[in-house]
From TrEMBL, chain A:
Keywords recorded for this protein, A-Z: Amino-acid transport, ATP-binding, Nucleotide-binding, Transport
Family from the record: Belongs to the ABC transporter superfamily.
Lineage: Archaea, Methanobacteriati, Methanobacteriota, Stenosarchaea group, Halobacteria
Domain ABC transporter: 20-252
Entry protein name: ABC transporter
Transmembrane intervals: none
ATP-binding in keyword set: yes
Automatic annotation (TrEMBL), chain B:
Biological classification of the source: Archaea, Methanobacteriati, Methanobacteriota, Stenosarchaea group, Halobacteria
Entry protein name: Inner-membrane translocator
Family per record: Belongs to the binding-protein-dependent transport system permease family. LivHM subfamily.
GO cellular component, one term: plasma membrane
Pfam families per record: BPD_transp_2 (PF02653)
Length: 253, 289
């Protein structure tokens, strides 16, 4: 190959290395069947958007990958090795990190304590990771001893992302609606962080969003989920340009 | 007059601190595992019986004070791993039935092995007799109980506030699933907390076994008082449990001074007032965001 391509997905077919493979999973909550024969593939270095309306099953897809709501059927593999059936903590140790919907920071703990907890599962000295995180998120540095629950939504979102990056090395970050409830200015900040993590740190990203336009502008590849099924699968730019599909699937005019 | 007040204060503090040892485990287990452990009184009782056995067989109160709680911890580990763990996803009613059943089994086993008569843990010479505290002549052993339980509670308090383990415990109490997604094996944390609570209850059992009688009814006897403490302090709050235990200890001791027949009534009235004024207890729900 002559040159390293600018956008990792540009030569998806030829050099792509599959990082995460979700193959034909079916997931249930109790008796209710939520995901139907769902398959996804994410290559190393990509940003993949998973979009769809309320209740489509986006969060459930992430929960399936994370082992929080294990699929009843189908397989999930990371770097070619099956991870379905593993406990959530084992899946995290294999490099899959999660920034949940509503952020779920530990509100009664300080910022520093939230981060210490996340770092505690990593191997060896984690102080470098700490400094990196504080450098990337100066707002958190200023607020080390503030209780996380008293911070603004945007600050909590930064903390949730920082927390996901500490501890065992993160290969792929699953972000669930990071822009939810944030002011437009802060949404831009979050988008910048996602892009930086991807470009500078080489973190592969699976981005779930209601804010489809924001997600598709960031992403290389896009999947659309409807009633627990993948109904569209294309490069993100292609979906973004397809007005009919955008309106039909996502209600975006 | 001053003498009896001073005496009651010492007694109340001692009562409160030992109660705190038992209540701490109950409240932490609830806060993290979401289980109301009705077997907690039975674990306390086991501490007293194991203490009696170790002190009797090995002839050392000090060994009893160390070994008996560890033995209770082992029993706690067995209860958590083999009986509670399969039930976490179930309705809380199952936890109540299970732990209540375990309490009855432990009580039955104790009667089977040691009989129904009362026993006592022999106290070493060093700790027998009494000393004067100001104008009061007070048993050395009771002061010892106050000192040991206060020290333990202080250590646990510091650990919860400062150590990584304490952070982990507070985070798990808040959002267990999130903790597991950070790479932490929460089932180990659960076992650890249950064992920790059992050990603290076991220490209280040995300490009180040296001053009160050790008998098969003591488990169910203590659990009501402990529940009142935990409810007043706020379910799940360690700090709340300690403050409430001291409050209950002092009210019981002063109550005995003023109107001995009414102390139980005082306790229930206090619980009712706290519940009406602040249903989550004095320190309840402050932990959560
Ligand atoms: N714990 C649960 N028990 C039962 N059903 C659930 C549970 N969580 C979600 N569901 C159902 O599963 C379906 C998919 O939910 P999911 O949360 O995955 O959707 P989503 O795409 O993330 O939606 P949103 O954009 O609103 O977050 C919905 O119909 C929802 O009602
Ligand atoms: Mg969702």
């Amino acid at each position: 190959m002559a040159a390293v391509s600018e956008t990792p997905a540009a030569d998806r077919a030829s050099t792509a290395e599959e990082l995460l493979a979700v193959d034909s999973i079916h997931t249930y909550y109790g008796q209710s069947h939520i995901l139907f024969d769902l398959s996804l593939s994410i290559d190393r270095g990509e940003i993949v958007a998973l979009v769809g309306r309320n209740g489509a099953g986006k969060t459930t897809t992430l929960r399936s990958v994370l082992g929080l709501t294990p699929p009843a059927e189908g397989t999930i593999a990371k770097d070619g090795e099956p991870i379905d059936g593993l406990e959530p903590y084992e899946i995290r140790k294999r490099g899959i990190s999660w920034v949940p919907e509503e952020r779920r920071v530990f509100g009664g703990l300080t910022v520093e304590e939230n981060l210490r907890l996340a770092a505690s599962t990593g191997e060896g000295d984690q102080s470098d990771g700490f400094e990196d995180v504080y450098e990337r998120f100066p707002r958190l540095d200023e607020r080390r001893s503030q209780k996380a629950g008293t911070m603004s939504g945007g600050e909590q979102q930064m903390l949730a992302i920082a927390r996901a990056l500490l501890g065992p090395e993160t290969d792929v970050l699953l972000l669930d609606e990071p822009s939810e409830g944030l002011a437009p200015q802060i949404v831009d900040d979050v988008a910048d962080i996602v892009r930086e993590l991807n470009e500078e740190e080489g973190v592969t990203i699976l981005l779930v969003e209601q804010n489809a336009e924001m997600a598709l502008e960031l992403a290389d590849h896009a999947y659309v989920l409807e009633n627990g099924r993948i109904v569209h699968d294309s490069p993100a730019a292609e979906l973004l340009a397809d007005r009919e599909a955008m309106e039909g699937y996502l209600g975006v005019k | 007059m001053i003498e009896s007040v001073l005496r009651a204060t010492l007694l109340g503090l001692q009562l409160g601190m030992t109660l705190a040892l038992i209540a701490a485990g109950l409240t932490l287990i609830f806060g993290m595992l979401d289980v109301i452990n009705f077997a907690h009184g039975a674990l306390y009782m086991l501490g007293a019986y194991f203490g009696t056995v170790v002190a009797g067989q090995l002839g050392s109160f000090w060994l009893a004070l160390v070994l008996a709680p560890l033995m209770v911890g082992l029993v706690g580990a067995a209860i958590e791993i083999f009986s509670l763990r399969p039930l976490y996803d179930r309705n809380p009613l199952y936890h109540i039935l299970l732990t209540f059943g375990v309490a009855i089994m432990i009580q039955g086993a104790i009667i089977e092995i040691w009989g129904a008569q009362s026993m006592q843990i022999p106290v070493p010479d060093l700790l027998s007799g009494s000393v004067s505290v100001g104008p009061v002549n007070y048993p050395v052993y009771w002061l010892f109980v106050l000192a040991v339980s206060t020290l333990l509670i202080a250590v646990v308090w510091l650990a919860i506030e400062r150590s990584d383990l304490g952070i982990l415990m507070r985070a798990s109490a808040h959002d267990t699933e999130m903790v597991s997604a950070l790479g932490i094996d929460v089932s180990k944390v659960f076992t650890g907390v249950f064992v920790f609570g059992a050990v603290l209850a076991g220490v209280a059992g040995v300490l009180l076994g040296g001053s009160r009688s050790v008998h098969p009814g003591m488990g169910f006897g203590i659990i009501i008082e402990t529940f009142i403490v935990v409810v007043i302090g706020g379910l799940g709050s360690f700090r709340g449990a300690v403050y409430a235990a001291l409050l209950i200890g002092l009210v019981t001791a002063y109550g005995a001074l003023i109107a001995p027949t009414l102390t139980d009534l005082f306790l229930f009235a206090m619980m009712a007032i706290v519940l009406m004024a602040k249903p989550s207890g004095l320190f309840g729900a402050t932990e959560a965001a």
